[in-house]
Write the structure tokens for this entry.
Amino acid sequence: MAYGIIHFYPNGTKSQYDAEIAIVHPHGGAGLPVGQLYHAAGPSPGGWSVVAIHDSKETWQKFLDGVLLPTIQSQIKDGFKTEPQATYFEVDHLQEKS
């Protein structure tokens, strides 16, 4: 079952997002990690929001534990300064434009 992730970074900015995505996503941020089906990000009231859909909770967890957390802790100096406010959910319905 697909798995949804919503991260909201209070006071987050585009430059902080750009610094992180360039390192944690393949091809300098142009590609999606293994298992990720969808990724969207942009400014929202009071900060920056990131929405991702993975093909399963397992691929999200593998990306989180194997790439995202270790990388942001050791390699990213200009990224988000706070932990995100996070919402996770099992995707009941995923519709794509054909």
Notes: The two ends are 20 Å apart (CA to CA).
